[in-house]
């Protein structure tokens, strides 16, 4: 029987060192009685194996997750955690996949202990309350008293170092004092009593606590589940809890009984808004305002906003795409998403000035299906395209372009009434329903979606050629 | 009137802020101050430093800069026509309170909101100055700024550069309700502002020509809040709006706030106890949409009046209505089927998937992993367990519904 006694400070490092030596010597878990220095020695005390005794193993093998797990087991106050960590260490030598099996009773128990240690750490991070105790060399000094459930002073210290780097502080627990002074952390094994102290800020803090509480939503059990009573004596705000609970129902009822009061007299905000404009002689801003209010088909429901066309009223070329995409829907401007950016590059290559053209879409609202948080584009159906033709026709009438460029089948359908056979019709000049010359080409998003690089390169060349042709048609 | 002390102001301006549900301090960049040159750190999921008797976490100093307001929103305690006393913090007072609270480990940071004074831009700029001063003073904790939708894009950009999270409240689930109860607010303008936040964040995420990033814009993203129970909107309206918001603006969270009676209330609103259970069910449904791959139409249908079942949670309600999809065999079923089992959360499902490789699991094994067996047992097959007749029983639903408790008097 072995009875290692570990120091209170540096417990984990000492446990790891000792456990390695015992395990190398193949000492079974049942023959080790783990404890802290000062604990009663075991009845079957025997000297620790010093150095390699009967070394039967080479290196001990553990999965990476064992380091974290054992770190979370050692601080457990009853000592069961240290014992269990050694049991698992020995079992892992024969069963390397052990830790992934949460159905194993010992693994489950270890995870439970680790969980309670994590909770204890978390509660210490949350419930330590510093009080200001003076100043030294330009650094403000604070001190706190805290009673953790387990021996977590060491693993918790780094959190406070990282958070309160520009001040000196001490956290005193019944067994250990954690001190951070001039950016140096030290831990001392000192027995301490709960001090009597005060901080004027606590009055402000309790004021805040009392006022942020909504008496109409009283749920004391939910509070106690997260802030158990054992922590209350060291939380300045907890002194208010009984009164807040007792008065809650009455306060809430009083608000309901008081009912409405006479509105305060004084400044009122001017609530007159101009009446919505309807059918004035068409200018582009008027037309766009009307498009914004469109409810001609159900697409306006899910979309963020209608996206009207953009460009000068006297543009000679009108470019018609399919519909706004995810980005256009948010920005409210056409051709700003990935496909629009590609189109700009191609137009640039062809020498076509997009700023001088009027760009718009056959359908003015974004049609999509939502998958989780993502919005996936959907092609508009014939009914939606037809409903939106009303706007496209008015844009055509207002801008009165010399040439129309249709990008893709939806635009072609909207402008001619038939979008079939796009690839065959590409590059040809047709007529719109109201008799304007219409050049047919592919939609840039088609280029983005083509998986085969060779096919994509060819399609891109074709579109660039069409854009050059558009320029040619305009100049002659 | 005598000059107000900072304590008087704090009492008023925190009381006025408590109707905002959000107190999260999670999901921002990792920061610390171990270099000794500043104060504060952030952790992955944030810390709740206290809990109020309403069961809600207190993580941030949640205050208004001022409760003066030129707007007249019926549901709001600070509307211009309300008789509540008014106060206003200076920039320096908010900075001082935040840092002194933080040094004592009371809070994770600041959640600043405000009534509108003078103009939207003026108010927003004062709030931005508070955040900028905190950062200039070396504060590395969490900052959440409520953004005023009408504020100029430059101010919103400045806000996002010092704050971790921005939020703009949509206030009520439908545009019609916003127009009815918050006459000066424009629902389209609110959405437009959320869109601007999303686009600015995306722009900042892109690298410049030199491969450098321009800085971090609202690293913890944006969120919003809807008030539940003040208007006639049903749960289908509410979840439909939320789903749309998640999709369009990449929101981190939509908060649902049960409308609760306020002092000096407006005559147009119901002064009853807040619908807390309804709020709870909405959060559960929201989780199913975001983490469990449920579609909106699976959670809520117009059949039951567009409302969620208050007696059982939405996942259980779905399982009871779709019994042909059960029982699910815990030892063979695919992940997406396990996620549909009432009583199994995402973590439990992960644990089942990794543990069952070591041998067939019994109900007891799953209980040890943290699964809620009382709910799950009727819907799963496990080693030595089949739900048998239970699953088809007409009284299955009754097993999960607690008998009504008598009202305490």
UniProtKB/TrEMBL annotation, chain A:
Residues 258-279 are annotated as: Disordered. GO terms for molecular function: 4 iron, 4 sulfur cluster binding; deaminated base DNA N-glycosylase activity; metal ion binding. It comes from Jannaschia donghaensis. The keyword Glycoprotein does not apply. Residues 308-468 form the Uracil-DNA glycosylase-like domain. One of its GO terms (biological process) is DNA repair. Transmembrane segments: none annotated. SMART domains: UDG (SM00986), UreE_C (SM00987). This is Type-4 uracil-DNA glycosylase. It comes from the Bacteria. Pfam families: DUF4130, UDG.
UniProtKB/TrEMBL annotation, chain B:
Its cofactor is [4Fe-4S] cluster. Residues 59-285 form the Elp3/MiaA/NifB-like radical SAM core domain. Keywords: Iron, Iron-sulfur, Metal-binding, S-adenosyl-L-methionine. InterPro entries: Aldolase_TIM, DNA_rSAM_put, Elp3/MiaA/NifB-like_rSAM, Endo/Exo/Phosphatase_dom_1, rSAM, rSAM_sf, RuvA_2-like. One of its GO terms (molecular function) is metal ion binding. SUPFAM superfamilies: Radical SAM enzymes (SSF102114), RuvA domain 2-like (SSF47781). PANTHER family: ENDONUCLEASE/EXONUCLEASE/PHOSPHATASE FAMILY DOMAIN-CONTAINING PROTEIN 1 (PTHR21180), TYPE II SECRETION SYSTEM PROTEIN K (PTHR21180:SF9). This is Putative DNA modification/repair radical SAM protein. It comes from Jannaschia donghaensis. The lineage of its organism: Bacteria, Pseudomonadati, Pseudomonadota, Alphaproteobacteria, Rhodobacterales.
